[in-house]
Amino acid sequence: MQQSAVPELAHTHTSPIQWVATATAIAGVVALSSVLQPGSATAAAPGPETKSAAAAIAPDPAGVDFPIECGPTKVLVQKKASGDLDGDGRPETVAVVRCDAGSGTPPNGVYVLTQAAGAKKPRVVATLVDPKDRLSVTDFALRDETVTATLLGYSSTDVPSCCPDVKDRAKWQWKNGAFLRSTPSEAQSV
Predict the structure, then answer these.
(1) What confidence score (pLDDT) does residue 151 get?
(2) How many Cα neighbours within 13 Å face the side chain of 26?
(3) In whole angstroms, what is the distance from residue 120 CA to residue 173 CA?
(4) Neighbours of 172 (CB within 10 A)
(5) Which of 16, 108, 160, 181 is the most exposed place for a label (fewest CB within 10 A)?
């Protein structure tokens, strides 16, 4: 084995001051990185419609008095989506609700909520699907001022609640002061 020309290299032994200097440098990097954060990411550059709707807060369906009779059980919000449906620059929320039954397939209601500036809580302004119609809602979405859903229902009162046998696609858009429903495809058997 060949001996080193320099008997002892200075960097082969660490001293406490080197550990303190390293820890201080790491702490400085961590502190600096927590202060300097990049801006939030967006999927697309916001247009004028997106900016105005984002400035207002969408109505929260928690605590809203929905027009659905649940008896002793509570109302369950299954799905919700928010967007500016009427083009006024303020977002509305569409909520799919049902009674929180322990079993079975309770029907859904689909409601549009709005909240006036300064109001303490939102209110229901439209019913898109009435629970009295015995429909279940699937594939619910809100895109480009349009609400879409697949509605599962029954061809007669003889069909058990567990097994809907009619499937229909529905689309709602705000036109001339009301939500108009259109059916993109014919009802089908399931």
Answers:
(1) 95
(2) 6
(3) 27
(4) 23
(5) 16
- Among candidate residues 145, 128, 119, the one with its CA nearest the CA of residue 79: 128
Q: What pLDDT, on the 0 to 100 scale, is given for residue 12?
A: 55
Tokens linked to 161: 């609640």
pLDDT along the chain (190 residues), means of 10: 47 66 67 52 38 67 92 93 92 95 85 90 95 94 93 91 90 93 63
Which tokens is 168 given? 């229909």
How does DSSP assign 74-110, residue by residue? PEEEEEEEEE-SSSSSS-EEEEEEEE--SSS-PPPEE
Least Cα distance to 63 among 101, 95, 103, 107 occurs for: 95
**Is residue 27 helix, strand or coil?**
helix
State phi, psi for 181 to the nearest 5 degrees.
-95, 135
pLDDT score of 57: 87
CA distances (Å), origin 107, targets 5, 65, 97, 138, 177: 88, 17, 9, 11, 27
